[in-house]
Amino acid sequence: MSKTNYYEYRNPNVGTRFFKVKEGQPVLQIVDSTQKKKGRAYQLGVNYMTYITFISSWGWKKDESRFIKPIKKEVFEKVLTKMIKKFIK
User: Residue 21 has what DSSP assignment?
Assistant: First the structure.
């Protein structure tokens, strides 16, 4: 049984994203901030992506990247709650 990991990706050129990752399972992504561009990839919100997409787009060099770091579950859940409150407004 694989463990669930949580990551924060913060890059001034891309924005801030949070990930809930369990190997082989869909990855929950929270897009908290982005550049001001058009397109689905630049929209704030919460979505799922396949595990393979996460690895190929964000996680393939997570051990070497200065932009992605592990975080605690509590931090992820706090950001998720904040995003849900934005939707309700």
Answer: E
For residues 43 and 30, the answer to whether their CB atoms sit within 8 Å is no
φ, ψ at 79 (rounded to 5°): -65, -40
What is the distance in angstroms between the CA of the first residue and the CA of the last residue of the chain? 38
Which helix (H) or strand (E) element contains residue 18? strand 15-22
β-pair partners for 49: 27
CB contact at 8 A, 59 and 69: no
The alpha carbon of residue 7 and the mean position of all alpha carbons in its chain are separated, in whole angstroms, by: 7
- Integer CA distances (angstroms), 56 to 2, 35, 48, 50, 51, in order: 19, 21, 15, 10, 9
Dihedral (CA of 60, 65, 43, 35) sign: negative
pLDDT tens digit string along 3-47? 999 999 988 877 889 999 999 999 999 988 776 665 556 677 888
